[in-house]
Amino acid sequence: MIIGPPKILLAFVLSASHVCASLPPATNLNEDYVNNQLVSFNIETTQGQQLSSDNTDPMVFMKYNSSDPFSKHMISEGSIADFVGMADFPEKTTFVFSAYTAEDLDELQSALPVSPQFVFAESLDEIDVLLNTSWNSPVLTLSTSSGVATNRLDCYYGSCAWPDEQDFDLPLLNGGSGCSSSEYPSDAASGSYVIVYPHGACSPTDAAKVASKLSYNVIVVQEEGEDLELISSEDDVDGLNIVATMIGFEPGSEIIDSFEAADNGVLNVTLSYDVVPGFFASVSAGGRLLEIGWEKLPTLQMLGWAAQWLEYKSALDTTLSSEEALVVPIFEFDLMQEAASVTMTLPVSESDLRAGGFDAMNVEFALGCDGGQDQDCSIWDHCITFTADCGDGEENLKNEPGGASDEIGRWVTSFRRGVGHFLTDASPLFKKIFAGDDVDTPPTCMFKIQTEGEPWRATLSLRFTKSDDAEAESSLPSETRPIIYENMATKFAGKEYNENRSFVFDVPEGTTKVLLHALITGHGQCEFLPSSHQWIFNDNNSTVFSSSDIAYSSYMLAGTPFGCANRTVEGAVPNEHGTWYYGRGGWCDGMDVKPLVFDVTSEVEVGSTNSLRYYGLGYLSGPIGKGDEDGCGGYILMSSNLAFY
Ligand SMILES: *[C@@H]1O[C@H](CO)[C@@H](O)[C@H](O)[C@H]1NC(C)=O
Ligand SMILES: *[C@@H]1O[C@H](CO)[C@@H](O)[C@H](O)[C@H]1NC(C)=O
Ligand SMILES: *[C@@H]1O[C@H](CO)[C@@H](O)[C@H](O)[C@H]1NC(C)=O
Ligand SMILES: *[C@@H]1O[C@H](CO)[C@@H](O)[C@H](O)[C@H]1NC(C)=O
Ligand SMILES: *[C@@H]1O[C@H](CO)[C@@H](O)[C@H](O)[C@H]1NC(C)=O
Ligand SMILES: *[C@@H]1O[C@H](CO)[C@@H](O)[C@H](O)[C@H]1NC(C)=O
Ligand SMILES: *[C@@H]1O[C@H](CO)[C@@H](O)[C@H](O)[C@H]1NC(C)=O
């Protein structure tokens, strides 16, 4: 199951045929500095403060180069406003700005608002050496056969295709102002490059829209004296679907003038990149180096997302090191290609845990890859599923990663970043592990962690913890029962999906609480379309347990431009190599699938036979549309259980 860039054909998520995940390129020259390495530095800020590596809160570094259009755009007014206005602004992080020239440092200092979180420094000490020698950055270039060479600013990645890393010549034609189709060449092959100069007759984006209709890739020339601006179709994900880029007035005019001297009016253009000293780095609370991710979106929010993740990670590390826990390591940097498995006897029995006061079961999972830098990680996103067969004879219902009846947790890999780290409550599934009748004998389980395609490394533990909650004794279930429907089909493209989704179950005498636990993700067409998932008990149609009530932003913001960027604070890995920032159907790239958990006690009758019915709804016209049984055209991976307490 490969989950790539969007390929959906509906009004609010337009079609895309490009799967070029090649830019920005990897430019790292060596592994002198790797992620998670401790680093030592002493930086003096222009305000006279000393910053050292004995930091207890994260630091994010930007070394500014105004000649790079990507960096320049990050310092634009709009970008700064978006950054400081971010929801959940990362308030513990220090953003350390430096520059390659004194003028650029001045520009930075006057552009950014005054804040104790924004500091400026002429030199970054060891971080400068790192940026100079190891973590380089790409500067995108454009050159023509007529001898013009310049830097370029590519269209917003969410709207346009990215050019392949193409160090080869492509024909370039003149498209006049670019504002109407009559100005474009009529006989050129689709996919040709056309240079246009709107000169105020239409906006750069409008010119790109005309080029897009004609299926030409476009180079838009900016007005004289203006900074390069970002071409974007705004909210239309993949709305332009061509390569579109902008260059400055002087080189642009020179290229346009050179058509006259060219044979048959045809020039060649080459899109490439230069490798220059790096622009970005970060240091975690505790002084470990981390890349901030890929240079895809020229907005300062890129630094904000990096900082949100560092703060999430710092809080997670604090929890992991301070809470009392009985930790059972299961996988330790094991290779998933496609799966890793281990059969082991747990070091504790159910009665040991209960007697010890443990009342929660969490899964800690860290995603890694071989090599010390993000460029060493696999490019695509795939589901990861963790299953446990602890001798209760349950059959594995699916052969896809995700949705089997013995599933304990699910995650999704990140596009080419090796930093995911998650802690997911799996307490309702406790009796899948401690499944046997003999509570005094530690269970023997076959644990399996599985993904598809390219290799990843998995580190996973079960963590049994104690909550402060006085009612805690009831938070490990006495039974976990998988919900099995007669219809377990995953395809959700019509009302057949909802047929035969009833389940009859007894609630044991003495039960005081019943939870419904479900892991649900949408894929294929359902990746970028909202869906909702409902359960009704004993035919009482007036009480509906719906995913929209407890996880609206996870399922209903699928396909929105920043639905997953918004979840960086919850641990979604930011600044990945692909379109990590779009909302998705119940998941994000580089994140754990958050379980849906409902307390359904009030709807069941203890000591007797009950029934439940599940149904899904899809929202083909987006989150404001009405849900219906036509579904979302793709498929849904669901595993669900009832837990009795
Ligand atoms: C700054 O960017 C320009 C434009 O691409 C490049 O030529 C130059 O090498 C860069 N300088 C540094 C120090 O990165
Ligand atoms: C960066 O590298 C260049 C070329 O090797 C060198 O001249 C310069 O001093 C270096 N700067 C730092 C801060 O290491
Ligand atoms: C354009 O590129 C093609 C393919 O490399 C080459 O054959 C042709 O001579 C080039 N034309 C010009 C004007 O440079
Ligand atoms: C649901 O059950 C009915 C009766 O057994 C059967 O005819 C129908 O094909 C089933 N539908 C699905 C989608 O499983
Ligand atoms: C509940 O809704 C379902 C589906 O619309 C319907 O078949 C059923 O008859 C309803 N039950 C009651 C008790 O109204
Ligand atoms: C059905 O749901 C309604 C609304 O929550 C509730 O008041 C009622 O008690 C439920 N009926 C039964 C039989 O559980
Ligand atoms: C992201 O979060 C902000 C603040 O909660 C919200 O205003 C915005 O609509 C969200 N955007 C998306 C696409 O989820």
TrEMBL record:
Keyword Signal attached: yes
PANTHER family xref list: SI:DKEY-256H2.1 (PTHR39319:SF1)
Domain Peptide-N-glycosidase F N-terminal: 327-464
Domain of life: Eukaryota
Classification lineage: Eukaryota, Sar, Stramenopiles, Ochrophyta, Bolidophyceae
InterPro entries: Cu2_ascorb_mOase-like_C, N-glycanase, PHM/PNGase_F_dom_sf, PngaseF_C, PngaseF_N
Species: Triparma columacea
Keywords: Disulfide bond, Signal
Protein name (database record): Peptide-N-glycosidase F N-terminal domain-containing protein
Spans through the membrane: none
N-terminal signal peptide: 1-21
GO molecular function: oxidoreductase activity, acting on paired donors, with incorporation or reduction of molecular oxygen, reduced ascorbate as one donor, and incorporation of one atom of oxygen
